[in-house]
Amino acid sequence: MHYCRRGCVTFRVMHRCKQRISSNACLCIHCNQVIPSNEESLIKHCESCSLMARPNPFRHKFVCFGCDHYSYSKTTMRNHFRQHTGEKPFKCSLCGQFFTSSAALSMHTKRTHRTVVSQVKRFV
C-alpha cells in the first residue's frame, strides 16, 4: 500500500495526488520504481515499464507512472504529467498567473483579460 505526503491511501484512488517523493523524483505506481522527474526520464519509463497494463499496444504506447491514463502521443502524455508533478510552465503576460497548458492560458486570457485583449487588437 502506498502513502503520499497528503496521506492518500493509494495513488490509484487519488488521481490528482502528486506522485513526487522529492523535488527531483517520482514514484511509479505500477512497479514502485523511483524515476527522475525530468520529462525525458518519465516518458522513457512510461513507454518501457513492463508492469504497466497495455491491453492494446498501439493505443497504450505510453501509460502514466502515476495513474492508469494512457496515450499514443508523447505530447499528450507530457501534458498529463503536469497533473502529477504540479509543473505550470505557461505564464500569463498580463497578470503573471501560471498554467499547465497553453490551452488553459489561452482560455484564461480570453475570459479574464477580455477587454485588454480587445483593446490591443484595435491598435494592431
UniProtKB/TrEMBL annotation:
<feature type="domain" description="C2H2-type">
    <location>
        <begin position="62"/>
        <end position="89"/>
    </location>
</feature>
<keyword id="KW-0479">Metal-binding</keyword>
<dbReference type="InterPro" id="IPR013087">
    <property type="entry name" value="Znf_C2H2_type"/>
</dbReference>
<dbReference type="InterPro" id="IPR036236">
    <property type="entry name" value="Znf_C2H2_sf"/>
</dbReference>
<dbReference type="GO" id="GO:0000785">
    <property type="term" value="C:chromatin"/>
</dbReference>
<dbReference type="GO" id="GO:0008270">
    <property type="term" value="F:zinc ion binding"/>
</dbReference>
<keyword id="KW-0862">Zinc</keyword>
<dbReference type="GO" id="GO:0040029">
    <property type="term" value="P:epigenetic regulation of gene expression"/>
</dbReference>
<feature type="domain" description="C2H2-type">
    <location>
        <begin position="90"/>
        <end position="113"/>
    </location>
</feature>
<dbReference type="GO" id="GO:0003682">
    <property type="term" value="F:chromatin binding"/>
</dbReference>
<protein>
    <submittedName>
        <fullName>Zinc finger protein Xfin-like</fullName>
    </submittedName>
</protein>
<keyword id="KW-0677">Repeat</keyword>
<keyword id="KW-0863">Zinc-finger</keyword>
